Amino acid sequence: GVGFAGCIEASGPAPSAVAGALGGVTGFWESGSIRVHPTGTVTVLTGAHSHGQGHDTTFRQIVADQLCVDPANIDISHGDTAVVPNGMGTYGSRSTSVGGSALVRSAEKIRSKMMKLAAHLLEADDADMVFDADNGNFHVKGSPDKAKAFGEIAFAAYTAHSLPEGMEPGLEEDCYYDPANFTFPNSAHIAQVGIDKETGEVTIEKYFAVDDVGNVINPMIVRGQVIGGIAQGVGQALWEEVRYDDQGQLITGSLLDYTMPRADGFPMIETSRQETPSPHNPLGVKGVGEMGTIASTPAIANAVMDALAPLGIKHIDMPLTAAKIYGAMAAANGGN
């Protein structure tokens, strides 16, 4: 049988004012701080906590791109309330669209201060300065040889020997980014399954997924999140079930009894993507963490029911276990 599923998700929750109007107890903003040290190394503080999604890599790439510094010279700190001022955490596929955007805004403030300091040091007008993202320096427009390197400006900001009037020493900026709107990632997934007539066992023969999660910062991380989500969604469709006996005792309380998806239950999952930038954040990204989970469950369920359609079977409650499918096939065949 073949099953199709398409979905669209409102992710990276909406502006805090909308949250309040809907009865939310807090806002949906996220904090991001960037501290450039005198040595030119960078410390990033984010309120979006990582627990396996790859935030360290993604946020490091964002800041490296914004400031044109070596990613190896960037340190990411999250989850430490002793140093991170505030944060809303990780949920709703929001970390990059909201937390990453906060870092973009902080980086823009850093660049702006560095531009003014470079202009002062080069005795040029602010309007005549250019940030050269290819070389990581600030130079006078039309005179690339009249430039100050990133590290030079960072050091000058802390020695404070020659600062523009009114500029404070140091190089650290914060942002509390409140999203302008949800982002709307979308997916189209196709699954092909086979069913063993003797046992009711489902075999996933092919699986194709196309997702639009906006601009992609790290393709490997995005693909990993999509495939991980697909595995979770397939687990819901075929295997995972919380069961109780007649006395209300949980009988699937351990991994010996609760069936989790395993690698040997899957073919090689083929993924592709469309990149339609979101207009609602400076990175043009959309949520990705939940997309595989949303589409895969109905894709697999539809494929199983398509395979059973010739027998007149129209519905089986999930999970679509071998025992349930075998029983449905036997009932459709007059108990044989």
Automatic annotation (TrEMBL):
Keywords: Molybdenum, Oxidoreductase
Molecular function (Gene Ontology), one example: carbon-monoxide oxygenase activity
EC numbers for this chain: 1.2.5.3
UniProt keyword annotation of Oxidoreductase present: yes
Record's protein name: Aerobic carbon monoxide dehydrogenase (Quinone), large chain
Domain Aldehyde oxidase/xanthine dehydrogenase second molybdopterin binding: 1-267
Keyword hit for Transcription regulation: no
